[in-house]
Amino acid sequence: MNVPQRVRGQDELAARTRADGASASAPPVRPRQISVELANSAKSVPLARSVVIDLLRRNGGDSAVDVAGLLTSELVTNAVIHSATSVGLLAILSEHRLRVEASDRSPTAPVVRTAAPDDTSGRGLVVVASLSTEWGYEMHPTGKSVWFELAL
Questions:
Q1: Domain coordinates in residue numbering, the chain
Q2: How would you write the chain as a 3-class SS string?
Q3: Which of 2, 63, 88, 113 has its Cβ near the most Cβ atoms within 10 Å?
């Protein structure tokens, strides 16, 4: 089943700005939070990465772009591979911190593995744990959310 990809936050704010009659010279709308519903597809990984990178760049977080993009890719890739559901992406940017969550409807908790040297997968959560300021997961009645935070 394909789930349409919807972006909330940036598009809604932009639409609201146009509806309020803001002129072209008005300051740009800078969302500090964005939510995207992604299809369970490998194509969702670069979209998720670009959404987070765009949020950072529009709000002066250029120094965190590379790490945030990599960690977002890891979370969304895991959700796509290990669940058969759509993936919710939530990115929240505060003055000194970025939080990114990937949610799916799988009831299975993530597992940090120790990959053998010739394994081609199994290192994603180790990378997330190594590069993030904090990370974790929360189980919900409808699935789980895996998240990371980066200090800015």
A1: 31-151
A2: CCCCCEEECHHHHHHHHHHCCCCCCCCCCCCCEEEEEECCCCCHHHHHHHHHHHHHHHCCCHHHHHHHHHHHHHHHHHHHHHCCCCEEEEEEECCCEEEEEEEECCCCCCCCCCCCCCCCCCCHHHHHHHHCCEEEEEEECCEEEEEEEEEC
A3: 88
Residue length of the chain:
152
The lowest-confidence range among 44-48, 60-64, 110-114 is: 110-114
CATH of domain 31-151: 3.30.565.10
| pLDDT over 70, % of the chain | 80
| Contact by Cβ (8 Å): 99, 148 | yes
- Among residues 80, 89, 78, the alpha carbon closest in space to that of 36 is found at 89
What's the CA gap between 94 and 61, in Å, rounded? 10
Task: Give the pLDDT band (50/70/90) at residue 116.
Answer: confident
Phi, psi of 27, deg, nearest 5 = -60, 150
pLDDT number for residue 31:
63
